[in-house]
């Protein structure tokens, strides 16, 4: 079976000009038929969708009552027909994961360091990959129940999500070391991904000198340090594969994922999720450009070959 994972920093449900765009974002995501979606910079308890938009929302969900006030995350869950989990950096602001497949297990950890950019967090969601394409809200058939009783269980994937400091590389490295311990402690499957807005650069993107100079100038203008690639190197040395680099080893243009046209949003995957029996399991990588946020949507498509013995 194949499945698609999306990653998007939704900028507090606002576009690049800080105009509220939550409903448009949810509608935009629904058109891409994603199985799993990781959202960055979301708010849990408040709703930025106006009362005037409630009736419009009913067009996207037959089960929605326009008389009921919901949070932005609940709107997204209804439109995407997905279950979701949320974990905060602080208060009601943080990151979330949506899945059309059953979330079997969820764990999270708040990361508090001395970073100028404040606290961060990481989560892990174990998701059941149902080959019969039964979504999370559908009941299992007797036949499926019988198979599980006999020990023929569906495969799972672990999804780790985070959003790292936007100011200093050293702060990101400290946060990532904590995340690596969290991954080792919590991963349940040989097949797992680490995704999010890492606010770091990759030297493998081979920015031309004039582009590197522009990136340096932008960072200095925002009181950030000069561009560095230490975090990316740390992650890949831990055995993670950069799915963009894996699918596009020779493409060096138009890889930017944010308003500064730099690639800072990544979907990393374990070896067992990248290759199996000499077959590539990363069969698609798309960057979908949009002005509904200050970041673009990333979509990675995996082809799952069962019973891998690789780590």
Automatic annotation (TrEMBL):
InterPro entries: Endo/exonu/phosph_ase_sf (IPR036691), Endo/exonuclease/phosphatase (IPR005135), GPI-anchor_lipid_remodeler (IPR051916). Residues 8-295 form the Endonuclease/exonuclease/phosphatase domain. Residues 132-151 are annotated as: Disordered. GO terms for molecular function: catalytic activity. It holds the Pfam family Exo_endo_phos. Residues 134-151 have a biased composition (Basic and acidic residues). GO terms for biological process: GPI anchor biosynthetic process. It comes from the Eukaryota. GO terms for cellular component: endoplasmic reticulum; membrane. PANTHER family: CALCOFLUOR WHITE HYPERSENSITIVE PROTEIN PRECURSOR, PGAP2-INTERACTING PROTEIN. This is Endonuclease/exonuclease/phosphatase domain-containing protein. It comes from Anaeramoeba flamelloides.
